[in-house]
Amino acid sequence: MHALNETHDPQLRSWVAAANAPDADFPIQNLPLAVFRRRGSNEPWRGGVAIGDRIVDLAAADRAQVFDGAAGEAVRAGAQDSLNALMALGAPASSALRLALSRALRDGAAQRGALEPCLVPQSEAEYALPARIGDYTDFYTSVHHATNIGRQFRPDNPLLPNYKWVPIGYHGRASSVMASPHSFRRPQGQSMAPGATQPQLGPSKRLDIELELGIFIGAGNAAGEPIAITEAEEHVFGICLLNDWSARDIQAWEYQPLGPFLSKNFATTISPWIVTLEALAPYRMPLDRPAGDPQPLPYLDTPANRESGAFDIQLQVELQTPRMRETGQPGAQLCRTSYRHAYWTVAQMVTHHTVNGCNLQPGDLFGSGTLSGPTPGEAGALAELTEGGKKPVQLPGGETRSFLEDGDTVVLRGWCEKPGAARIGFGECVGTVLPART
Amino acid sequence: MHALNETHDPQLRSWVAAANAPDADFPIQNLPLAVFRRRGSNEPWRGGVAIGDRIVDLAAADRAQVFDGAAGEAVRAGAQDSLNALMALGAPASSALRLALSRALRDGAAQRGALEPCLVPQSEAEYALPARIGDYTDFYTSVHHATNIGRQFRPDNPLLPNYKWVPIGYHGRASSVMASPHSFRRPQGQSMAPGATQPQLGPSKRLDIELELGIFIGAGNAAGEPIAITEAEEHVFGICLLNDWSARDIQAWEYQPLGPFLSKNFATTISPWIVTLEALAPYRMPLDRPAGDPQPLPYLDTPANRESGAFDIQLQVELQTPRMRETGQPGAQLCRTSYRHAYWTVAQMVTHHTVNGCNLQPGDLFGSGTLSGPTPGEAGALAELTEGGKKPVQLPGGETRSFLEDGDTVVLRGWCEKPGAARIGFGECVGTVLPART
């Protein structure tokens, strides 16, 4: 686990002025990574690091030879059109890059003259997926979500007996993971209407969001070589926001016995910026596992995981309807919660995924599963907020929503803040529902 | 669908003598593709086409400029270290390559002099995965397997109500798909013993095979753009053998509610050679869908699919135990069946997978699901052959097997044959179980 070091000092200020604003997502203590180019250009995609309202262009910094040693090597790896090579270098390389950038971006840094020409305004940038995602695995780490959604699919049996022993996960679709902002068509699919004798094909009528975090794998493991929980975080590159769009009517009909398939694989949206675990070190928390619950099996259990395996990442879902946009109203908050309520940690996910010898590769993506908190307003999916569509959400201006309608835009936001530590923002994850193909 | 043409003529003979043997897997009517190099060498991996006991080295054929036009372009794409570029060119490119190779490899072909130096003996070759697999999807297309295995997991409810409407599938793990021959460690995992109050971690005690075919996607589709069933086969590159190794004890404990995960993702083995759909054209069959069953929804139904959507591919599973190897005995046949018994066709899989707009990419892999036939001896998994381990298989020499033991080697074989058509072989898919990591 990453210890606090000089890069976390909340007193640090940058010569990039916007990084010093108290509500900045990207202060000098954050330094998240993305792949970008100037919007609408034919420039090569390349890695970048956010600082205030700017991006440190890693390809430019490489050409200008601003950094040397391990940091220089990391900059070179990050200058490519995906971050896979940087991810493959592992946690020490990411740490070296973070330290070098922190020092070079501080007030009074000697490298300012060399680095300032390498900055690109975020307002001029567009983003690609930060990595070529080899495999995408979606977990199910919120016991509150598992209970809420389980109650709708299995009223008599909401939380299955394995839940408190197994960090449940399943494989998702890598090809349809896209970077924010992302517009996608409402999916068609089979569903079985209540009382019907045969299914029908049509546009999903129960299109939903799932508020998740995405976890990018850094250094991988060879097939047959599990990752011990004490080493697990060394294999994690960082965390982004993730919206696992879900068609509940398709899901209800298709998911037995092999799990969700077409109800999920039409679109997944992630935020462009990846926040490293090191940046999140000030926001570690004890794992929120109720006292009466069974202790995890030893391979999933360490004192460090119990005492500081969780992260207090604040999360918010905002809905912007077409009418809100037309009338100039702001979006409406659908939910507010925190990642601290997750039942299984990032380290437990990595270790469980590999206990059988499954090989992870740099750029692989995990979804946390929908991050619903313990109270109704903390639910991360409409299926929970509306009790399966029965109690529509009331929106300002008299609108209601049971599920998403065409033209709806959903914005996920994430941030960490507390007294005595710098604010660490994740930016936004934005997705818009287009009408079904006709 | 590919029509019969001059490349299917059973009278064709090759100047590669071994291709003309009546039991050859790779006669001139087959021409399957793989990625290979000389065994133990540092040569670059490149595409190759099997002919008899030789491989046409596509990189060498490209350098020698043996082919021009569309076939030359296909050879150039196939000369790379994976077949993804050739797959992306689509079915017309594969057809052009097949026709050109068929003509150049025939008795008396003018190109013999140019092509013969491009041949490498199969006995000297080793194989890589034929493609970078972006996503791997495993289907469940044998109603016999679904019923047999469903009876063990859900005795009261073996075949779920969606089965005859939905080509059930789920996402599998791409990173752990490996080319034959493949050795892998017995996986560790959580399982819940009968009567136990808590699960335990340990090596799987119920390690199984799954006899499947693998289907490689050629030209992909853009996100949001479904592939109609009339176009589906144009997006298929070809078919190989696939063993979807499965840990039944891990599966039983983990699979609810999101499907199999660690019970499957430790290892999947595929045969190196991909047989094109065009080569299989003589072996098309009517779809085996019982008269009383519901007709598929229109998006999954065409006369062509009903009348010739299936393929009569003979399949065999052989087990070689360590004792058989020590005593010089041949392996024992565990099962014999045919792909003709599948309930859903290749075209239906492609169309269903994309009906929601999910994007397929060149090199994506589908598994057919375990291809059990209607009778007990046609079951493609030990869990079925032994009724969940209760009736061990009796092997020659007095050995028995409920599930796989350390050192066991499993060989899948596939071939098509009938009077009036050339034999089309798939070669072998070989995997060996190593002891669990200690």
Automatic annotation (TrEMBL), chains A, B:
Transmembrane domains' residue ranges: none
EC class: hydrolase
Molecular function per GO: fumarylacetoacetase activity; metal ion binding
Superkingdom in the source lineage: Bacteria
Region entry Disordered, spans: 179-202
NCBIfam families cross-referenced by the UniProt entry: fum_ac_acetase
Biological process per Gene Ontology, one example term: L-tyrosine catabolic process
SUPFAM superfamilies: FAH (SSF56529), Fumarylacetoacetate hydrolase, FAH, N-terminal domain (SSF63433)
Amino acids binding Ca(2+): D138, E210, E212, D244
Protein known as: fumarylacetoacetase
Domain Fumarylacetoacetase-like C-terminal: 137-433
Gene designation: fahA
Residues involved in substrate binding: Y140, R154, Q251, Y255, T370
One matching Pfam family: FAA_hydrolase
Keywords annotated in UniProt: Calcium, Hydrolase, Magnesium, Metal-binding, Phenylalanine catabolism, Tyrosine catabolism
Domain Fumarylacetoacetase N-terminal: 29-130
Protein residues bound to Mg(2+): D244, K264, T268
InterPro entries from the UniProt entry: Fumarylacetoacetase, Fumarylacetoacetase-like_C, Fumarylacetoacetase_C_sf, Fumarylacetoacetase_N, Fumarylacetoacetase_N_sf
Biochemical pathway: Amino-acid degradation; L-phenylalanine degradation; acetoacetate and fumarate from L-phenylalanine: step 6/6
Cofactor: Ca(2+); Mg(2+)
